[in-house]
UniProtKB/TrEMBL annotation:
Gene for this chain: rnhB
Domain spans labelled RNase H type-2: 11-200
Gene3D superfamilies: Ribonuclease H-like superfamily/Ribonuclease H
Organism: Winogradskyella damuponensis
Cofactor descriptive note: Manganese or magnesium. Binds 1 divalent metal ion per monomer in the absence of substrate. May bind a second metal ion after substrate binding.
Job description of the protein: Endonuclease that specifically degrades the RNA of RNA-DNA hybrids.
Protein name (Swiss-Prot/TrEMBL): Ribonuclease HII
Length: 200
């Protein structure tokens, strides 16, 4: 199934998506992308369906051909203070606010969003596999977040974030059990299955 370029009738339609919502460590990262109506790319799909190689290939293509793009990280302490859903939406708002051209319409992956300024929006479940701008945003959010996780991996290699990117893999949980938590861990998350709170 090929992805559609446009949802609304507005010319400047922006797609937005986030990455890292379910992670135990690191930021939640969102991107916002406005694509020109002429944009075509047979490779572009939901970033979860793409190999790392293809995401890496797509990133410069999206950034070169997009009318506008931006991304935003929201970090652990803020996730812990406002909760992950609010942090995800705040990251999307932050990415939209940095676009060099203001969108006339916003399409959002998923079913949760808060209005941004007075711009109309629609939430689209599985939007990243239906609309090119949301798919493009999912690729940028994922590649920028992965790059950040690879960077902080150098500081705490025992959690293997360059591989698991902070997701709750068995290996990541074993490392938390063995080494405790870092400043990059989300303390409001259930970090180990057998307990709800670590003694901090």
């Amino acid at each position: 199934m090929s992805l559609k370029i446009q949802f609304s009738t507005y010319n400047l339609e922006c797609g937005t998506d986030e990455a890292g919502r379910g992670c135990l460590a690191g930021p939640v990262t969102a991107a916002a992308v406005i694509l020109p109506s002429s944009f075509k790319n047979i490779l572009l799909n939901d970033s979860k369906q793409l190999s790392k190689k293809n995401r890496t290939l797509l990133k410069p293509i999206i950034e070169t051909e997009a009318t506008a793009f931006a991304f935003q990280h929201i970090f652990e302490t803020e996730i812990d203070s406002i909760n992950i859903l609010n942090a995800s939406i705040k990251a999307m708002h932050g990415a939209i606010s940095q676009l060099k051209i203001a969108p006339e319409y916003i399409i959002v992956d998923g079913n949760k969003f808060k209005p941004y300024e007075s711009i109309p929006h629609s939430t689209i479940v599985k939007g990243d596999s239906k609309y090119l701008s949301i798919a493009a945003a999912s690729v940028l959010a994922k590649t920028y977040r992965d790059a950040y996780m690879e960077k902080i991996h150098e500081e705490f290699p025992m959690y293997n974030w360059k591989q698991n990117k902070g997701y709750p893999t068995k290996e990541h949980r074993v490392a938390i059990k063995k080494y405790g938590i870092t400043k990059y861990h989300r303390k409001s998350f259930r970090l180990l299955p057998e307990q709800y709170k670590l003694n901090i």
